[in-house]
Design goal:
Blueprint: H1 5-19, E1 28-31, H2 37-44, E2 49-52, H3 54-64, H4 69-80, H5 84-97, H6 99-105, H7 130-138, H8 140-143, H9 147-170, H10 178-191, E3 195-198, E4 204-208, E5 211-216, E6 221-222, H11 226-230, H12 235-243, H13 258-264
Parallel strand pairs: 1-2
Antiparallel strand pairs: 3-4, 4-5, 5-6
Helix pairs in contact: 1-2, 4-5, 5-6, 10-12
């Protein structure tokens, strides 16, 4: 009913218990930085990673300072930058337009919203939480119903969704997801245009046009950081692997495999009988936090910026 430290603590403690998240190790959150949430995540799951949605950063940034379309462009380019030098170049370009805008933007630590500074344990390089917005739209009708009816409608939708996603994965023609293979194919085309030089030990210098990167196949790293961020060999890594006559497909992370995908959806929601047959045990009870009176009618749709529907360019941009 109200987003603050008390309610977020209540929610995250229940989530931690239900999913056995322990101290948050290997867990990555992405949020819109709601009031009370940042500190609660640090307290309840201290070893988790927390990313900030760039779309919400843009909205908050716009409220504090007048920004132009070109400034927004540099914001997104900064977020998509996969290595530090590129991020600094975009920030410099932004600063040349407005020093105040650049200073205001840096109020948000880059490690929480820029690919250049993301941890590489999580093999997902998204910089916005559009997935959450899609889910909210998916349950829009259910959200307007009384609590039990709402949860029952969502349960049925999720039960069907889990089955559908599993069936979808079983139709895959290969070992890895279609989205993964689409990106890999694009990288492969770029790799064929790259040149490689090898120092005889662990260093591969790969030229892509006027840019150069170094690849270490032993440490599984490229200075463009794309390989580390996604778990999919970048063009420079593919070129180095081909130089060694190795199959780049063997270096795709397990997280993109059919096996991993099926494991995600293997836990099914079982059919249940009507409410009068439910047996609720005391340990299943979730006591709510104190109610807070909210002024006005409850919202069912989030506020959208007028240009939000515009598609963006970039790897896996949504």
């Amino acid at each position: 009913d109200k987003e603050n430290t008390l309610t977020w603590t209540w929610f995250l403690e229940l989530l931690k218990h239900s999913l056995n998240l322990k101290d948050g190790t290997s867990i990555t959150f992405m949020s819109d930085m709601q009031k009370g949430l940042l500190e609660t995540v640090r307290t309840v799951l201290p070893l988790s990673n927390h990313r900030f949605c760039v779309r919400h950063i843009e909205a908050n940034w716009s409220k504090r300072i007048r920004i132009s379309g070109e400034m927004k462009k540099y914001l997104w380019w900064s977020a998509w930058s996969t290595y530090e030098e590129d991020f600094k170049d975009q920030l410099k370009n932004l600063g040349e337009l407005s020093v105040d805008a650049a200073k205001e933007l840096l109020r948000y630590p880059p490690q929480n919203w820029c690919r250049s500074y993301f941890d590489t344990l999580c093999k997902n390089q998204m910089v916005d939480n559009n997935f959450t917005a899609s889910f909210n739209s998916w349950i829009l009708v259910a959200r307007g119903k009384p609590i039990l009816k709402m949860l029952e409608d969502i349960r049925i939708k999720v039960m069907n969704r889990l089955r559908e996603k599993e069936e979808e994965a079983r139709t895959w023609g290969g070992e890895f997801s279609p989205n993964c293979m689409k990106l890999y194919a694009a990288y492969l085309k770029v790799a064929n245009l790259c040149a490689v030089h090898f120092n005889g030990e662990t260093g591969y210098e790969v030229s892509e046009g006027g840019d150069r990167h170094t690849v270490n196949l032993v440490e599984k790293k490229c200075t463009c950081r794309s390989w580390q961020l996604t778990g999919i060999p970048c063009p420079h890594t593919i070129r180095a692997l081909k130089y060694e006559r190795e199959d780049p497909m063997t270096e795709i992370s397990w997280w993109h495999s059919k096996e991993a995908y099926l494991m995600t959806y293997r836990a099914k929601l079982m059919p249940v009988r009507g409410e009068k047959f439910w047996k609720v045990l005391p340990e299943h009870a979730m006591d709510p936090p104190p109610l807070a009176n909210i002024v006005g009618r409850p919202k069912v749709k989030r506020n959208r910026k007028k240009d939000e529907a515009n598609k963006r360019q970039g790897d896996w941009a949504a």
